[in-house]
């Protein structure tokens, strides 16, 4: 009986852990293609050259003229904390894009930005603004704390710049990452940016259309979002600049999801808090997958044991009741005495 109660508590704890990792629907959105609608206008703001191409369900980020900039901003604030204790949330954002000339290069830049929800969004619509996201934020958001991940993909090589902090403590990190990410034959390039609240680390991964590799190569860097914004309310957006080229960029899809971080014991290995890596090994992603599989196996074994114990318990109860219901027959000696 004690084992039965123990397994029951184990099952409930596993269920509770699974529930805490569910996504926060209030800070989640997904656009698999873009359609003109009242919901779209209320949720998404387009600035610069960005415009919705209704016949293709795509957002054209830049025009086919050099020195053009386009931005897409999700209007509704995203919460990075939950509860009165301000528990930090992890998040993942995924977007796919393409270029008209089937390649990106010549100072073409794409960026993911996070700014406080108090920032006036009309700043993104400045007509005299032909800067990349980092240059724009440094000049127009001088009194705000921002985060921007900007990457440039070209035949010469891939590079990235990360902007973190406020006007007095702004930190720009420059790094390069390897991998053939040039888009050919009209293909698209997918990018996934993942932030883990426990390890305070942000990872940026890419995958070409038709590739069997799962978002590889990637680079990562340390970042503590809990120290940047007191209320945790931010606005997220995407920015594109074609620099000296005359290529038009297109956005195919965009999604964002917050989630509760897993318990610390589920991490396969500790992460260096101050490390900025230019290339991560594939083994880390594989080890994370292995730990997830092991967790599923442990949960399955616990549920199976619980089912077996429950069946044995019910069988024992039924057997006892059955034995009590049998009335013993009178012996011949007792019948003779009567």
UniProtKB/TrEMBL annotation:
GO molecular-function terms, A-Z: carbohydrate binding
Cited Pfam families: Lectin_legB (PF00139)
InterPro entries: ConA-like_dom_sf, Legume_lectin_dom, Leguminous_Lectin
Keyword Transmembrane listed: yes
Signal peptide: 1-22
Sorted UniProt keywords: Lectin, Membrane, Signal, Transmembrane, Transmembrane helix
Membrane-spanning segments: 290-315
Legume lectin domain location: 27-266
Family designation: Belongs to the leguminous lectin family.
Annotated PANTHER family: CONCANAVALIN A-LIKE LECTIN FAMILY PROTEIN
Protein name stated in the entry: Legume lectin domain-containing protein
């Amino acid at each position: 009986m004690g084992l039965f109660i123990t397994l029951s508590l184990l099952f409930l704890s596993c269920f509770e852990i699974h529930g805490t990792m569910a996504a926060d629907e209030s800070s989640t959105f997904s656009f698999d293609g873009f359609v003109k609608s009242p919901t779209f206008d209320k949720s998404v703001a387009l600035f610069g050259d960005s415009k919705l191409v209704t016949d293709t369900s795509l957002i054209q980020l830049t025009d086919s003229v050099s020195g053009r900039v386009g931005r897409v901003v999700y209007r509704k604030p995203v919460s990075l904390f939950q509860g009165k204790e301000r528990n930090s949330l992890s998040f993942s954002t995924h977007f796919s894009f393409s270029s008209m000339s089937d390649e990106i290069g010549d100072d073409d830049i794409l960026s993911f930005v996070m700014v406080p929800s108090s920032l006036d969004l009309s700043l993104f619509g400045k007509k005299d603004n032909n800067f990349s996201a980092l240059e724009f934020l440094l000049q127009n958001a001088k009194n705000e704390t921002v985060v921007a991940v900007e990457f440039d993909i070209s035949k010469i090589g891939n590079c990235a710049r990360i902007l973190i902090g406020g006007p007095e403590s702004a930190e720009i990190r420059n790094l390069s990452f390897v991998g053939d990410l040039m888009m050919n034959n009209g293909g698209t390039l997918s990018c996934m940016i993942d932030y883990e609240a426990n390890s305070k680390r942000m990872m940026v991964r890419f995958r070409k259309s038709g590739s069997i590799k799962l978002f590889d190569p990637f680079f990562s860097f340390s970042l503590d979002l809990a120290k940047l914004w007191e209320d945790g309310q931010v606005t997220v957006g995407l920015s594109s600049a074609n620099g000296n080229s005359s290529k038009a960029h297109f956005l195919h899809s965009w999604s964002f999801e917050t989630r509760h971080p897993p318990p610390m014991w589920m991490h396969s290995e500790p992460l260096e808090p101050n490390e900025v890596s230019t290339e991560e090994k594939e083994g880390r992603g594989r080890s994370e997958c292995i730990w997830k599989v092991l967790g599923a196996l442990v949960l399955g074994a616990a549920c199976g044991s619980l089912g077996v114990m429950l069946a044995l318990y019910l069988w024992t109860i039924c057997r006892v009741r059955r034995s009590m219901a049998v009335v013993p027959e009178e012996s011949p000696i007792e019948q003779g005495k009567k």
